[in-house]
Structure formats: structure tokens, C-alpha cells
Design brief:
alpha/beta; four-stranded antiparallel sheet; 13 strands; about 30% helix; about 25% strand
Amino acid sequence: MIAADAQPLVRIRNVGVVRRRGGTRVRALSGVSLQVRRGERVALLGANGAGKTTLTYVLLGLLRPESGSVEVLGGRPEPALAAGELGAMLQETGLMRGARVGELVALVTDLYGRRTSAQVLAEAGLEELRARQVTQLSGGERQRLKLALALAGLPRLLFLDEPTVALDVAARARFWQVLNERAEGGATVLFTTHYLHEAEQFADRVVVLRAGEVVADGTVAQLRSSFTESRISFRTAEPLAEGMLRGLPGVRSVDEDGAARTVTTTDSDATLAALYAKVGDRDGDGVVLRDVAIASASLEDALGELLSDDAAHAHEDSSHRDSHGDSHRGSRVPGEGEG
């Protein structure tokens, strides 16, 4: 829950990062600025290579930017991470192979001293797996263990990178239930995902990255409203004059499949009024429109529009070589090419 007087827990200004991809130095983040308030749930969205994972590493202090400033919980992120104030669930996480689930959770909870291992195991749904070795866990069970370790220090700020990969439907629902409870208790959550329904259902705010730059920042409703097209679908038993639908005001495209027709328009009111005026809406007095439905833009529509020229931007970005040779300050981390 976001308090009315909530202060920013995260402040980054004009952050730039250069990383290696296939032997080439490319700019992974360029002039990124962002503030996140206490209690916010923020989804970081973008295509592969857009900079989401890189930004997560910067916020955790695992990757040092070449330019700009990073402030987490009032200072540099490293002390907050060491104190358990930050919790992280990353794609590239090594787990102690010889340990059992209960042993590993107890090790981390004892390190921070804020919770018992029993509490954390119960929260992550791992009680029945406490005696199982890490190497014997399935992909979904490993994700649940990573969540338990991220929550072990009762962190004020959580960073989750593609957290629900490999989880089945029930485990995914339980995962978001846990995160909702944490957020309602005042925790701040930043997460990346390729499942857009998760951003729609869980995020208070969405930040879209493209080629290392922030191209959109707002609520799901605000992003949807920025995409002005909507779809009108209907059925007709009678044929329509060729080209008639394409001539209606606001129409961008037409899809016809037998009696089913879908019109994409920038002005649904004007399009629908003109359509009825042309074909008629009464039996025996023109073409009858059946099953008329209007669908407003989805988050997927808005994101597709924002990322439509992503390949071109990525190509331009890859040509921006760093002029400082190999002496850059950005540290090399696992998954470097995935950002």
C-alpha cells in the first residue's frame, strides 16, 4: 500500500551502463532516471535485451554504472543489501548444491536474525521440502526456494527478475498472494516479467524500457490510454460493399473472416456511427449488424506500439562503441547479454 506521504526509497538519475555482448561493447542503459516510493509495486517491462536485468543489478549494487547516481534507502545499495534491507530473486542465482532446503533457509534467516526459518518455509510453502537437497528440486521448487531466501531478512525493498518462470498455475497464484501480502505490509516491490497479465493484476505502475532507455512510465490505465486504437467486431449475414469498411472515419485496418469482421479504429464512436448510417440497423431496412462488441486497447497493444521499432533501436545502440576502451567501471556479472 502506498502511503499518501510516501517518500522515494529509490532514486536514480541519468544512469548509464556499458556492457559486453558478443565481444562488442554496447550501451545497456542510457540516461535512465527513476524514483520509486515506499509501498509501490513497479513492473519493469521490455523486450529481451532492453536493459531490465541490467537495471536490477544496478539497483542492487551488483553492477556499477559508468555515469549517473544511484540512491537506495537513502544511500548506496550495497550496505542495504548486506543488512537484509533488500531482497532479491534473480534469474542467475547459485544455490549451495550440497545443502538441504531447511538448512539453506536457516543459514540465511540466522544471518539476519529477523525471522525464524519455520516462518519463511511456511510463507514460501516449503515445509514439506525442508529435508530435500537443493539438487533434487524441480524448476518451480527452486523458484520457491529463491523467493524464501529473498524474504528471509524481512526486506523493505524487493527486486524480482522474471520470478514466476517455471511455476505452475497454482504456485504462481500463491506467489503473487505472498507478494501482495508483503506489499500490503509496506514492502516495495520491483519486478520484471514477460507475463503481461501479471503486470496488469499486480503492478501499481509500469516502467517500459527500450534499448536501454525509459520510454513509458505510468499506471496500466495510463499506458492503455496512450494507445488510441480500439477494435470493433461484429457479424453480418449479408455481404458488404467492397472497400466500404476501409472508408469509414478513423479506420486503420479491417479483418474479415466469413461473416465475422473486425475493424481497428482510432475513433470508435465516429466509426460505429458511420457504420450504422451506411448499413442500417433494422431488419428489412439494410444489413443487420449482429454481436457488435468494442474492445479498448490492452496493455499488450500499448506495449507492442511502444516496442514496435525495438529492433531498429537495438541495431543503432549496438553501433555506439564506448570510446574509453576496456577501462570502464561497470562490473561483469552473470547473464551479461540478457539485460
